[in-house]
Amino acid sequence: MEDIGRIPEEIVRKIAIEHLENLDDFESFKEVCSNWRFAIKEVDFVFPSTNTQLPWLMLADSPTTPYRRFHSLTKSMFRKFDLPERDDDDDDHRRYFSSMGCVISASRRNRNINLFDPFSGRCIKLPSVKLDLLNDIDEFNPWNDNTYRVSFIKFILSARPSESASYDDELEIAMVYDKTQRLAFWRSGQPNWMKPDVDLPWVFDLCFFKGQFYSVDHQAKVMAFGSDVTKKQPRLVANLMTQGLILENPMNMYIVPIENKLVLIERSFKDLDEEPGFDENSVYTYATQTFDVFELDLDDGKVKRVESIGNRAIFVGHGSTFLVEADNDEVQLQTSSSSSNKHKCGCKSNCIYFTDDWYETYYVHKKGGGGDMGIYSLAQRKVVDTFYQGPSQFDFVNPPIWVELPRR
């Protein structure tokens, strides 16, 4: 190891620039020794505007561990990230979510919310959630483990936090909270989470697009929220049920921008105990059955069903919904005066990669969540593959989640 540390910095930098293929390799390279880490501190990945690398899967490690392990789909390898210490919270039980490459934690005891960027090590403390924001919390329904499991559903960032303090002024976060899946918003500089003026229960997912949040709910309605965080006046954009595209309340839906349109994904499940040959000793009694995809034109509010998302894959679960380009996915590692090195990622095109996010069901199963994960082909209309069957897959509170790799 001492000999490795003596390699001249210019040689180490040259190896990193010319031979490392992706962020997985780059992160591992930094951990060889402190000299290598110092030598490449000014070397960074430069990503195109679209996401082109497979995400990492954050595994279901014990809530008492001070770290989280990430599984690389690209390299089929594991990487451990130490979680930041929190002086103001001695609670060792937290729920974890992800958005824009960041990990968001919500503590059980004090409902403290923290945002952690595993790639830069930066941590941002967000306002804690006050009990009066949560429904059905009183002396007859106290805050407890079961309440905690269903009171934080999803966090969606407007953008990935930057090192620039001025950029932080523009950071906005939407939170889906409470077992009735209501909304609250926060912007940098605000002391508390704020609810919109109109109560909108049973929101499934949100995305940030062209300066505002868009949500999709249990009635397949798409709502847009204005730019003023203190007056979130929602506006109805489209209703898939009144347009005859969805006949009954969906079980789960997601929303993601693709180019200049919004794409909506409906996820339906099947009861395995009603399937022929079902094993009564099976851990799971449910599984994802189908995904249906719809394209929303924001100019006229018209929605149409689509059979293909092209050379892309969409990733869904307990976090922001995002896509990865399957073709033309070049990423380069460079400095200001270096050559570049490019690679291809290995995601399956026209597919949806899904993790287990049916929290209402999995927290009562024998092993918890984590069993309903796989790759769904829109062309074949079925689940065609799995992407992980290793350790730390199951958990009642924190089943595996996607962590999107950062992009510029």
UniProtKB/TrEMBL annotation:
Domain of life: Eukaryota
Stretches of the chain forming a coiled coil according to its record: none
InterPro entries tied to this protein: F-box_BR-signaling, KIB1-4_b-propeller
Database matches in Pfam families: Beta-prop_KIB1-4 (PF03478)
KIB1-4 beta-propeller domain boundaries: 72-377
Protein name: KIB1-4 beta-propeller domain-containing protein
Provenance organism: Spinacia oleracea
Lineage: Eukaryota, Viridiplantae, Streptophyta, Embryophyta, Tracheophyta
